[in-house]
């Protein structure tokens, strides 16, 4: 059993951020499972973005989203968020998905390479390594 006292330090902002991102992804998934419920999707988006701010900080989040090469992805992502808030969830999620893929395109090869190194299944690890190696880091 875990006991909490008044003398324990508060969790770090990274832990809070990971929790917010996790809840945001949960609400996004749950909103999609419930036939694109716009309230759950909007709540998930807000939690995801606030968790991202807690994890990497406000300045880094702002500079990540508003770099010149990433403005197209940012506009689609935030435009999709606004469309979801206006209660057009399917169109908004499509716009957000395109913006998300455009924004995080450079991270996919790294993530696939990491998953390939963890997988002990021979065919799966070879497939993930091929997908991870095919992308460019530009």
Binned strand content: under 5%
N-to-C span: 49 Å
Count of alpha/pi helices = 7
| Main beta-sheet strand count, sense and barrel state | none
How helical, in percent, are the residues?
Answer: over 70%
pLDDT below 50 for ≥5 consecutive residues: which ranges? none
Beta strands, count? 0
Whole-number tally of structural domains: 2
Tell me the structural class. Answer: mainly alpha
Average pLDDT across residues?
Answer: 83
The SSE string, one letter per element, is: HHHHHHH
- The shape, in one word, is globular
Rg, rounded, reads: 18 Å
Tags for this model:
74% helix; 2 domains; transmembrane; mainly alpha; single chain
Question: What does it look like?
Answer:
It holds the Pfam family Got1. Keywords: Golgi apparatus, Membrane, Transmembrane, Transmembrane helix. Belongs to the GOT1 family. By secondary structure, the protein is mostly helical. The chain folds into two domains: 91 residues, no CATH class; 33 residues. Helix content is 74%, strand content 0%. The protein contains seven helices and no strands. 19% of the residues are buried. The mean pLDDT is 83.
Write the layout of secondary structure elements.
Blueprint: H1 13-33, H2 38-56, H3 58-65, H4 71-85, H5 89-103, H6 108-118, H7 122-134
Quick rundown:
With 138 residues, this protein is mainly α. It has seven helices and no strands.
